[in-house]
Amino acid sequence: xxxxxxxxxxxxxxxxxxxxxxxxxxxxxxxxxxxxxxxxxxxxxxxxxxxxxxxxxxxxxxxxxxxxxxxxxxxxxxxxxxxxxxxxxxxxxxxxxxxxxxxxxxxxxxxxxxxxxxxxxxxxxxxxxxxxxxxxxx
Length: 138
Prior knowledge:
Elements: H1 2-23, H2 30-35, H3 45-58, H4 76-79, H5 94-99, H6 101-104, H7 121-132
Helix pairs in contact: 3-7
């Protein structure tokens, strides 16, 4: 009888734990990110760009753990490093040079040999617009 009692007690705790773990997955995938349309103006870092940077840049490479290129994209202040993003001047921002590499002749980000899909045209224009609008922490 004790064994059955222990089984039911374990079951009582195991089921809510499994439900809790399965219901917490709010991970956004690359395909979901690519379906989000960034507006032509009033681009928001937190609403429009952070999810893209998180999935396509920070998740694999540009985070505090990997810190590829000595550059983290996990926060607005990290993204806004001098020279990488120059507010109001997208043409002089290295971030633009890398995500629109065909236009500017730089090594592309994300790299071709990575398993991360490149930014869509709408995403590249959105980043350009955000920088042109001052690269606000909004």
